[in-house]
Known about the structure:
Shape: elongated
Radius of gyration: 18 Å
Number of strands: 0
Order of helices and strands: HHHH
Amino acid sequence: MLCCLLRCSVFPGSDLLVSNALLLTSHTGLGTYLYSRRHMQLVPQPWRVIYSVSGTALFNLGSIMFCAMTKVILPRIDALRTFFGIASGVVFLNVVGRYLQFVDDNTSKNAD
């Protein structure tokens, strides 16, 4: 309830605009992050863009799909749903960060 009241008072009537703006910044930030990774330096520039766009779409839209599916399962307690959303985001970022570090480390070993 508090989350809804806070959101309604901060962004009255513009939920879709705020959601789309946050999604756009997420796509931009993650795409730039993927594009600049060490293992992507070995890839030709057009493919770097394609791989970065594909990676950010898979990550962001997969996260949205996961949260939408689990929203049905979770009870209607805003605090619990908020905690679950933040915790799942932290877990996703940690797993993807470790995976990218693993790929970077193995790419640099193979390039030597």
